[in-house]
């Protein structure tokens, strides 16, 4: 019976079945792609580090005579690869396309940072004319394996270099908005060592790979003991990858939220279409009951066609997800993916291939059962819905009939053949408004953060290196303080200390003019010599919070126990990032260090002052410092926004999807109301309602649905957007400031009402042009 009916259904309703299959395919492909992409992105960092022997830390003694065998002999050190500072450029390419450092021995690419080769091969360490590039370099410059570039060295001059491979490793992973990197073989340094030497020799840095059971704290303690130095800068590369993993985790969570929203939308819309198809088929099969068709047979027969459409759609969706996998993982994770290209997540795709048809068949069986039990669209109503209080009030206060009827159509689902999907429409409108407002709120916050340096703690406008001579530095500070456009100056002495295995750049908070106010995230700034405020990344690495006490070791004898008073951002410098380091009082700095490693004047200008003009004026007027002058320059401002811009896209995609859901749900409800309540409208027309009033009924229905969505969606959307922004701001270490969404709120109301009324244009025209006599005769 089921087979015969299915053949009949295909001949007479194949277009409907094809549409259902395509709807299922679209929904399945969207959900499966998002879930598989989330899983791939979340594991990208672990899969890359498992294959590349990444450096755990980088040791930078800034001493050409440093004995690296001391580091190699430390406990837990498995390998050390030396790198020389890059002094070459690439002819014809902009600055920044060269690597930060050049390999200086054969350990690089072999025992440390053993890169994943995406194309070609690794360079021969014996050849100075070979190099490898990252994927972003190929994309930005169009130069890949087999191409030749010219490296320009200070002494040797031009060196023709052939690109032999495209690689990826934790140290050589690309990042958004960057041009990619070219890294030569170790043979370049071996052939031209003089091109990498400073006046005292080559200041190598060492990439150190530690054993899995060795911590950075243990290594730092061992290094200080073995060298007798506590001022050696150590960069924690493993912590950097942990930060990348955090960003990738946020992106993956966002993709899972997107998948969940898409799945719910599919259940609400596509599932509803499948259920209605099954219900209609079951109602048709009631005619065959007299021939001996049992309810069980009817249910199975009614579910056959939707089940087949769902199975076909699931298969197409799985295929689409497999094709789409070549564009994943998404965002930051894409820059650390060791195997870019298509990747079939068989557990996810296999689950979708089985689960989607099963859910469709189950829904179809339930819909058919309701029809045959007399509780579905083809039988008696299960319950009579109470009239809407809003529509009742409109009627009581004598509002025009089109407004009263339109409100009832918007808020009262009705029953039997005249039932309208009111709840899906209201839910769709609410979710659409909520999603769009949440995304707009989040986008506004990201725009503010990426255009306002203060969100990253950069409250100063200019800086001036003060040099080593105290008298000259004091003269510079005094001269800067007299400029009429300067509102505050901080005398920032900078020293390198260690605490619990972490290198901490300590800045002195010493306002010599005005008030220098760093951005404080929690607690307060230090007031006495035994207090300190930590940058958030440093606090996280030390597992310290305001109120805790930490031991900090500088260049003076012994460690100092200091109380953490708060979390605050620092100025960017060559010694630190904005979220790394600590603030100390001048007295506290003096207790930690014999003298500063560096000293800088951080200058805050008055509002409206032109930073370039002031910098030029100050540079011309300042007295010379002991080491060659004190040129005033713009603040060092590293671009910390790419990760936020990557994260900004996903909510916008989700908002677009939810907006389509809202349009579909509201549009379906409006069209259904005109079709299923045409008898009511025909009666109203027969007793005197005009065509214009008939249009007003549908337009009122659309407006009421939009207003209901706005009343609930606006406050929830703003609250959700701010909540998501607070979470992202904390995770990415940005100063959280609630975004101003006044303009968005003012724009949302007219846009939502206009969209709803545009959706109502066609149904209202159908209602107005209805042939009253034909409808009444048919009923």
Q: Characteristics of this structure?
A:
22 strands, six-stranded mixed sheet, alpha+beta, 779 residues, 4 domains
Structural notes for this entry:
The structure is a single chain. With 779 residues, the protein is of the alpha+beta class. The chain folds into four domains: 1-56 and 236-380, no CATH class; 81-210; 387-454 and 640-779, no CATH class; 459-634, no CATH class. Helix content is 50%, strand content 16%. It has 21 helices and 22 strands. Strands 12, 13, 14, 15, 16, 17, 18, 19, 20, 21 and 22 form an eleven-stranded mixed β-sheet that branches. Strands 3, 5, 6, 7, 8 and 9 form a six-stranded mixed β-sheet that branches. Strand 18 and strand 19 form a beta hairpin. It is elongated. The model is unreliable at 377-384 (pLDDT under 50). The chain crosses the membrane at residues 253-275, 308-328, 348-368, 425-446, 650-675, 696-721, 741-762. Keywords: Cell membrane, Lipoprotein, Membrane, Transmembrane, Transmembrane helix.
Number of domains: 4
Helix content: 40-55%
Structural class: alpha+beta
Q: How many runs of DSSP E, i.e. beta strands? A: 22
> What is the residue-mean pLDDT, rounded to a whole number?
85
Low-confidence stretches: 377-384
Taking the sheet with the most strands, its summary is: 11 strands, mixed
**What is the molecular shape?**
elongated
Hey, roughly how much beta strand do the residues contain? 15-25%
Backbone CA Rg: 34 Å
Number of helices: 21
Intertermini distance? 32 Å
Pfam families: FtsX
GO molecular function, one term: transmembrane transporter activity
Keywords: Cell membrane, Lipoprotein, Membrane, Transmembrane, Transmembrane helix
Subcellular location: Cell membrane
């Amino acid at each position: 019976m089921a087979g015969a009916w299915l053949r009949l259904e295909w001949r007479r309703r194949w277009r409907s079945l094809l549409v259902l299959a395509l709807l299922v395919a679209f929904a399945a492909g969207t959900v499966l792609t998002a879930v598989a992409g989330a899983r791939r992105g979340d594991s990208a960092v672990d899969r890359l580090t498992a294959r590349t022997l990444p450096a755990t830390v980088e040791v930078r003694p800034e001493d050409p005579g440093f004995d690296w065998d001391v580091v190699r002999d430390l406990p837990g050190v498995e390998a050390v690869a030396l790198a020389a500072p890059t002094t070459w450029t690439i002819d014809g390419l902009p600055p920044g396309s060269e690597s930060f450092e050049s390999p200086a021995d054969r350990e690089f690419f072999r025992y440390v940072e053993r890169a994943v080769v995406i194309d070609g091969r690794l360079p021969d360490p014996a050849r100075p004319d070979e190099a490898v590039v990252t994927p972003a370099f190929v994309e930005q410059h169009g130069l890949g394996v087999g191409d030749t570039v010219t490296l320009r060295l200070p002494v040797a001059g031009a060196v023709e270099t052939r690109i032999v491979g495209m690689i990826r490793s934790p140290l050589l992973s690309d990042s958004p908005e960057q041009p990619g990197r070219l890294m030569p073989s170790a043979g370049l340094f071996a052939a031209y060592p003089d091109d990498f030497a400073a006046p005292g020799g080559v200041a190598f840095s060492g990439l150190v790979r530690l054993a899995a059971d060795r911590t950075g704290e243990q290594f730092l303690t061992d290094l200080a003991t073995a060298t007798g130095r506590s001022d050696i800068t150590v960069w924690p590369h493993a912590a950097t990858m942990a930060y990348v993993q955090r960003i990738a985790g946020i992106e993956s969570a966002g993709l899972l939220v997107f998948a969940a929203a898409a799945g719910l939308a599919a259940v609400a819309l596509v599932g509803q279409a499948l259920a209605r198809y099954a219900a209609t088929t079951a109602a048709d099969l009631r005619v065959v009951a007299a021939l001996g068709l049992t309810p069980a047979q009817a249910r199975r027969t009614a579910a056959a066609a939707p089940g087949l459409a769902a199975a076909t759609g699931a298969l197409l969706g799985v295929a689409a997800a497999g094709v789409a996998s070549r564009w994943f993982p998404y965002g930051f994770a894409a820059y650390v993916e060791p195997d870019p290209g298509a990747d079939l997540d068989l557990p996810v795709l296999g689950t979708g291939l089985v689960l989607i048809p099963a859910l469709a068949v189950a829904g179809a069986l339930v819909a058919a059962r309701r029809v045959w039990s007399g509780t579905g669209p083809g039988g008696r109503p299960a319950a009579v819905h109470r009239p809407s209080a809003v529509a009742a009030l409109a009627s009581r206060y004598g509002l025009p009939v089109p407004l009263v009827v339109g409100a009832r159509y918007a808020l009262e689902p009705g029953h039997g053949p005249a039932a309208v999907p009111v709840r899906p429409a209201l839910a769709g409108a609410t979710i659409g408004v909520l999603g769009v407002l949440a995304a707009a709120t989040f986008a506004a916050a990201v725009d503010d953060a990426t255009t306002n340096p203060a969100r990253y703690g950069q409250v100063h406008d200019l800086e001036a290196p003060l040099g080593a001579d105290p008298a000259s530095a004091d003269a510079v500070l005094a001269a800067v303080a007299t400029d009429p456009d300067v509102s505050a100056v901080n005398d920032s002495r900078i020293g390198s200390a260690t605490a619990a295995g972490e290198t901490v750049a300590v800045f002195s908070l010493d306002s010599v003019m005005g008030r220098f106010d760093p951005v404080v995230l929690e607690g307060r700034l230090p007031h006495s010599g035994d207090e300190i405020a930590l940058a958030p990344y440093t606090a996280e690495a030390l597992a310290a919070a305001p109120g805790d006490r930490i031991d900090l070791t500088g260049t003076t004898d012994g460690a100092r126990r200091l109380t953490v008073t708060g979390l605050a951002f620092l100025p960017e410098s060559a010694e630190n990032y904005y979220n790394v380091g600590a603030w100390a009082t001048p007295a506290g700095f003096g207790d930690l260090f014999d003298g500063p490693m560096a000293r800088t004047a951080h200058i805050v200008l008055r509002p409206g002052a032109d930073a370039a003009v002031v910098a030029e004026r100050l540079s011309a007027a300042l007295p010379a410092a002991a080491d060659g002058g004190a040129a005033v320059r713009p603040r060092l401002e590293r671009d910390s926004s790419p990760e936020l811009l990557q994260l900004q896209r996903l909510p916008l995609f989700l908002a677009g999807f939810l907006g389509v859901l809202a349009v579909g749900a509201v549009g379906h409800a409006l069209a259904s109301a005109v079709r299923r309540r045409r008898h009511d409208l025909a009666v109203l027309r027969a007793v005197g309602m005009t065509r214009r009033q008939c249009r007003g009924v549908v337009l009122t229905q659309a407006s009421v649905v939009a207003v209901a969505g706005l009343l609930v969606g606006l406050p929830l959307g703003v609250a959700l957007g701010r909540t998501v922004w607070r979470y992202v701001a904390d995770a990415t270490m940005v100063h959280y400031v609630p975004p101003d969404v006044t303009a968005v709120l003012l724009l949302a109301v007219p846009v939502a009402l206009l969209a709803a009324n545009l959706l109502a244009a066609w149904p209202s025209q159908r209602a107005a042009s209805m042939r009253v006599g034909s409808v009444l005769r048919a009923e």
